[in-house]
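User: Sequence in, structure out. Go.
Assistant: Echoing your sequence, followed by the structure tokens.
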Amino acid sequence: MPWLQLTISSKKSMAGQVEEVLANVGALSVSYEDNGNQAILEPEIGQHPLWDLVSMTGLFDASANTNLISGILSQQLKLKKIEYRWELLEDRDWERESLKNYQPIKCGHRLWVCPSWIKPPEPESINLLLDPGLAFGTGTHPTTFLCLQWLDAARLEGKTIIDYGCGSGILAIASLLLGAKNTTCIDIDPQALMATTENAKRNGLMSNVIDVYLPEKAPNNPADIVIANILSGPLISLASRLASLTGPDGLLCLSGVIENQSKEVQENFSAWFEFDAPVYKENWALLTAKKRGLL
């Protein structure tokens, strides 16, 4: 069945009112996009800031009366002229269309991340099979790619790993496929823990080598390597916690850090760790370090 899409340009101050009116006239969903090339790189936890200029899109059934809806919008929003456009969306299998965006990715010398429905390009390599889902982490984002590349080059044989903020579990699973002994996966989102478990099964990993926990239920046992691919704000607030989870002479791998925030993040960990030179990709930084010996 085809759909109608209504796109409206709005100021931030009116976005809430526009969304309410769209819902009242039958919009099945409403989405927001930047309409002024304004970056919002990292909002505070619990905050949901909007751009100053917003492009709002309402999705309607194809039978919707566009003239009536346009008239109601102009009247209720009290605008003499409202900037909008209607588009007809052809009937397509959107799930199948979205799958086309995912292709195998080579991360280093040995490791590939492959959608489970595509044959691995190098079957003899280490192939991590993944289905994109609700949890963050498919290998396409620079932060995830940098971590995977680092893991591919690391010596993981027999190592214990903690993946803090595991998302899809991609980093923990990659660690195990690359030779790690076991992994502990921690995330505040129960869906992420479910995704991690399912992706581990998809890659033939036994439950005794990968454990999943909410933060408040996670054990305090230190690991040889701690990985945290989250934003810089949470990383800074978790500095002492991540340090305590890193064993003697252990390694730390931090990502999710914008390039100009890398110095601040390193400073907050410097009491416990000696950092390597940062590695950058598309304005994102990978920070790796070794835990200092006892003073």
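User: And one key feature?
Assistant: Residues 9 and 226 are 44 Å apart (CA to CA).
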